[in-house]
């Protein structure tokens, strides 16, 4: 006989497991969120997972039907743990709420309601009307993190923006005379590659693209195919086919956010190299960032990680376009030769932006990693 305490502990454990599974396809489900569904049943020796699935690559099928297929006859009277309220609409597939009802599940535990207006509350309602016990438990913060891009896109019609910075303890981001400065340790760099894989796009200014000649891909073993779209702000048509972001564009997609007046031969070079070109609106001689985010959203981009440099980071912060900040503070930096050469980060450990709150501190090797979230109004 299960006590209420047992049920609560099981709910937390299985919903956490579902949230971990949902991360598997984060950034790979297009405009659909990556949702996970676990079907759990007591077959005589305590609750076990009898079926599990995550939203398929590209966004369909949704998570619930394949999880039910796997559970087969065990779906009857099982508990479903779904990271998002099951859908209630007839889209390209029938409503998942109805599919769960038809399979005979007796209880559902979800982390958050779906802001999609075709669903919002209706999925839960359909299931409650069918006599299924609905339980929404406090997995909200973790679920919102996994689906941050989807939630920003559905509720605010724009991509979620993460600003990632690597700084020294006194807030230096780079060196004017040495180009790329080694600040972060290997463990931090791996985490950055993981963050890249979890975003739809990664964005840098042309200064960083030229000084560092980065390739901005995910290079974790086995995850090379999870490299996001690489976006470079280049109003002055400075990148050439020698830069990795251009020369590898066939393999790893690149989009240049440039000026409508960019020379025709330069635009032709980009086309020949397989680079997408987006003619941007400008503001004070810079790419107009809110409009750029609108354009990226219209192309199906739901999350963007801004990776530098200092001026681009500052512009995103000044225009209040950042939702989350990840700062890696390097434990063993190479300092620039002189103070004049040091490029200051727009924020430091001693000077964190007031409209953000620290929500996580982690240690990656010798580096400290801070995660800050924009305060809710
Ligand atoms: C679920 N389970 O795994 C996902 C859901 O275009 P469609 O028909 O695929 O519908 C997209 C909407 O479906 C999306 O906005 C969100 O509301 C929901 N996604 N729902 O029950 C899933 N990925
Ligand atoms: Zn569905």
Please supply descriptive tags for the structure shown above:
globular; alpha/beta; Cytidine Deaminase, domain 2; 12 helices; five-stranded mixed β-sheet; 377 residues; Dihydrofolate Reductase, subunit A; single chain; binds zinc ion; binds ligand AOF; 2 domains; 27% strand; nine-stranded mixed β-sheet
Please write the CATH class name of the largest domain.
Alpha Beta
Any low-confidence stretches, pLDDT <50, length ≥5? none
DSSP, total strands: 18
The largest sheet is: 9 strands, mixed
Fold and architecture overview:
The protein has about 375 residues and is α/β, with parallel strands linked by helices. It is about 30% helix and about 25% strand. It contains twelve helices and 18 strands. The strands form four sheets. It has a nine-stranded mixed sheet with strand order 11-10-9-8-14-6-15-18-17, sandwiched between helices. Strand 10 (about 255-260), helix 10 and strand 11 form a beta-alpha-beta unit. Helix 3 (about 95-105) packs parallel to helix 4. The longest helix has 19 residues, at about 5-20. The radius of gyration is 23 Å and the shape is globular. The relative contact order is 0.12. The mean pLDDT is about 95.
């Amino acid at each position: 006989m299960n006590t209420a305490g047992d049920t609560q502990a099981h709910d937390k454990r299985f919903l956490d497991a579902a949230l971990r599974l949902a991360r598997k396809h984060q950034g790979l489900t297009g405009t659909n969120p990556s949702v996970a569904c676990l079907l759990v049943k007591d077959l005589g020796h305590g609750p076990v997972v009898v079926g599990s699935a995550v939203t398929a690559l590209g966004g369909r099928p949704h998570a619930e039907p394949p999880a039910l297929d796997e559970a087969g006859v065990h779906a009857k009277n099982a508990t479903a743990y779904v990271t998002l309220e099951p859908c209630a609409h007839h889209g390209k597939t029938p409503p998942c709420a109805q599919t769960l009802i038809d399979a005979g599940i007796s209880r559902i535990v979800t982390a958050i309601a779906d802001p999609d207006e075709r669903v919002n509350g209706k999925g839960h309602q359909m299931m409650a009307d069918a006599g299924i016990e609905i339980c929404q438990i406090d997995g909200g913060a973790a679920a919102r993190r996994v689906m941050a891009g989807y939630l920003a896109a559905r509720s605010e019609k724009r991509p979620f923006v993460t600003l990632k910075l690597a700084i020294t303890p006194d807030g230096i981001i780079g060196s004017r005379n040495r180009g790329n400065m080694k600040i972060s340790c290997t463990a931090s760099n791996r985490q950055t590659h993981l963050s890249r894989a979890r975003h739809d796009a990664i964005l840098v200014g042309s200064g960083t693209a030229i000084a560092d000649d980065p390739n901005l891909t995910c290079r974790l073993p086995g995850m090379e195919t999870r490299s996001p779209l690489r976006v470079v702000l280049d109003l002055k048509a400075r990148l050439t086919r020698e830069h990795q972001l251009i020369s590898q564009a066939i393999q790893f997609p690149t989009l240049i956010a440039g000026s409508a007046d960019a020379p025709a031969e330069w635009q032709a070079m980009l086309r020949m190299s397989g680079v997408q070109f987006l003619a941007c609106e400008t503001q004070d001689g810079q790419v107009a960032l809110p409009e750029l985010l609108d354009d990226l959203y219209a192309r199906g981009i739901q999350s963007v990680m801004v990776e530098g440099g200092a001026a681009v980071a500052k512009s995103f912060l000044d225009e209040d376009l950042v939702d989350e900040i990840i700062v890696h503070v390097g434990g063993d930096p190479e300092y620039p030769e002189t103070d004049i050469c040091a490029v200051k980060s727009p924020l430091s450990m001693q000077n964190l932006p007031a409209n953000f709150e620290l929500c996580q501190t982690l240690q990656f090797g010798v580096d400290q990693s801070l995660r800050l979230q924009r305060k809710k109004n």
